Amino acid sequence: MNLIIATSIVILFVTTSCQENTKSVTYDQLIKRAEISFSASEYASALQYFLDATEKNDLSSYGYMGAGWCYFRMDSLTRARDQFLVGAEKDDANGDLYAGWAFILNAQQLYSLSNDKAYQTNSGWMFSLDSSLNSGHVHILKAQNHLLQGHYAEALAEVKTVDTNFNADISTDVGRAQLAMRIETLKALKSKPLNR
After folding, report:
1. Exposed (0-12), middle (13-18) or buried (19+): which is 181, by Cβ within 10 Å?
2. What pTM was computed for the model?
């Protein structure tokens, strides 16, 4: 019985200490901890820091963007989309947020909406939390979205931004199949950063 009481007191103390530590940490400190956790692929930990950061400063999109990417990496697409949606309402929403949102919408088979968000990233975009993810991934995403909507010329144009030597006669079934295969090959070559 004494062991149960002692264990309960220790758990209460640890829980209280952790809560007080989070409350006394600044927004910038939470963001830094979130970034470190994210770069170590500790997405659950990073998520909590990003969510705590949004409670400290709900005017910045950065915490929502980070939380969205954490949810995405943890395969919680609806929660990721919700974070990106809230973050997009902030004045400082940027390419990191829109790229993540575009990937989520693609995974949810909302290809036109995915491209709407993808086109809000800039041509030189590089993900601030993982520099191995960049505009090449977004071009491949847009190519896939266009292909799946039957917009073959647009899909080919996006592929050519990544692979300038590729060409296919998209007026034929064979050419469209070649385009689809090239998109799949490019996705496979670039998939590692998305699937961590």
Report:
1. exposed
2. 0.84
